[in-house]
Each structure stands twice: as C-alpha cells, then as structure tokens.
Amino acid sequence: MHRNESLPTPASSIEFTDLGFRVDDRALLTDLNGRFDGGRIHAIVGQNGAGKTTLLRCLTKELAPTRGQILFNGRALNHWSFKALAKQRAVLPQQSAVHFAFTVEELVSLGLEVAESQTNHINQLEQILAVCDLQSLAQRNCLTLSGGEQKRAQLARVLAQIWPDHPEADQAFSGKWLFLDEWSEGLDLKHQIQISAWLRRASRQGLGVVMILHDLNQVVQWADEVLLLKQGRLHTQGDIADVFTADNLHQVMDVHLRLWRDPALPYPLIVPE
After folding, report:
1. Phi and psi at residue 78, to the nearest 5°
2. Which residues, including other chains, have CB under 8 Å from residue 69's CB and lie 6 or more apart?
C-alpha cells in the first residue's frame, strides 16, 4: 500500500484519553483512547450510529466531552480559544449549505479572512480554486451550483482557512489539521481522484487529515491509518495493513467481506463474500 513515510512534527498530534460523551442516559462514546499524528491521513470507520461524527465533533471542540481529555498539538483542547483554533484546523461537516447569494470566490474569501494571512489573497484564492477545480465557477452564485459543485466550493472555503503563506514549502502545513465528514459523498470520480491526490500531497507537507468514510475501498486507497469504532467504543486503531482484516471488518461492520489482492494494485479490494 502507498503510505506516507514523512515524519510529523512531534507537537503535531491529537490525543484523546478516556473520552466519553453522553446524551441524557445514552452513551455515544465510551472510554476512547487514541492518537492521530500530523502528516498522515486518518480514517474513522464504523456502522451508522457508531459514534464517528460525535468523535469528530469532540475533536474539533464543537462538542464538549462528558469525560476524558483531548490534547490538540500538545495543549488541552479546552484551553484553545475558538479564534486560535480556527487558524489551526478546518472542518467540513456532512451538510454545509449556502443560504446567501455569495459567489464562489466570495465564499472562499471568507475562509481566507479567518486565516488573517498577510500574503496576496488573489494568489491564494487562485491556488485554492485550482485544487478544487473551481476556476471556471469563481463568479457563479453558489445558490445556482449543483450539489457536487457546492461541496467543492465548501471544501475550498475550509481549505482557505488553513492555507499556508508558502504552500510550496516542504512542511507548509505542519501543525494544521483538516477534518472531513464524508467529503467524497456527491462528488464525481474525477474530483474524488483530484482532491484525494491533493490531500496526499498536503499530508506529505505536514497536514494532518481526519476523515469519516463509508466506502472501505476509498479508505484503503486514501488513508494511512484507520480507527474502527463499534457502538461508541474503540475496536482497533493502527495502520491500514494491520487493521483492515476480514475478521476486524466483520466484527465492526457485521458483514462478511473478502480482501481481494490484485498484484497490479498496492492495496486490496474489499468485496462481499
């Protein structure tokens, strides 16, 4: 499998210890312990209701855990202000609708304003639009875009929030994090391939990526590590090659799967038995 061999900066990490989250008398997360390192792409996998989005929302400070601790880049997450955090991490939720007649360019510029970059916004805007293949749509009203086009515009907005002053530098994204909840849903194959390739390049430059995915074949192609959740509890976390076994997937997904290996591919294909 293709894996990112770059070494992350030690401080670029997210650690959670004894993490729990309850709603009334129902536990959505229970005693989770884990770590995500910067410079790698991490996938969170589990059935519907396993706690994937709840975990993501706790890690981004959208939700306050009922118990446990989260360290973000070496510092307790609850000690980060939302303003400071917004410059270090960006979040694309499952649903992110536009309710005003912004152009695509104006929407992406909102992210650049959060970053408070001192460099030329025009150059940054062009770079971000290119990553998401939005150059021809820059002046379009977001309300007139298709679902997939809106998804790419929202992704460009969150990328702008953490866009570095010098994106060509070796560790341009060091210390920065991107959280994605089902980002590939609704995107055509061309844009899935284009954006996943950019995520791979940015991770080599230090970007930490945490994504929720349902398509297991996308996980094996795109991620370095995976965290398997079952009913709000950690089942397994580690490198894809170690975690994605037929037995683990059966226990977590409650379906019999086969990992079929093609000598021409660096990763297995996952198919039903």
Report:
1. -75, -5
2. 16, 17, 18, 19, 76
d(CA 197, CA 201): 6
Q: Amino acid identity of 267?
A: Y
**What domains appear along the chain, each with residue ranges and CATH number?**
13-88+162-272 (3.40.50.300)
Q: Residue 138 to residues 156, 164, 207: CA-CA distances in angstroms?
A: 11, 21, 26
Cβ atoms of residues 141 and 103 within 8 Å? yes
Gyration radius of the chain over CA positions: 18
What residues have CB less than 8 Å from 18, skipping those under 6 apart?
Answer: 31, 32, 33, 67, 68, 69
Handedness of CA 94, 100, 103, 105 (dihedral sign): negative
For the chain, strand residue ranges (E) read 13-23, 26-37, 41-45, 67-72, 75-76, 89-92, 177-181, 208-212, 225-230, 233-239, 257-260, 269-272
Q: Residue 61, CB half-sphere, CA atoms under 13 Å: how many? A: 17
Digits of tens for pLDDT over the chain (273 positions)? 444 444 444 469 999 999 999 999 899 999 999 999 999 999 999 999 999 999 999 999 999 999 999 999 999 999 999 999 999 999 999 887 777 889 999 999 998 988 776 667 888 999 999 999 999 999 999 999 999 999 999 999 999 999 998 999 999 999 999 999 999 999 999 999 999 999 999 999 999 999 999 999 999 999 999 999 999 999 999 999 899 999 999 999 999 999 998 888 888 999 998
- Backbone φ and ψ for 124, nearest 5 degrees, come out as -65, -45
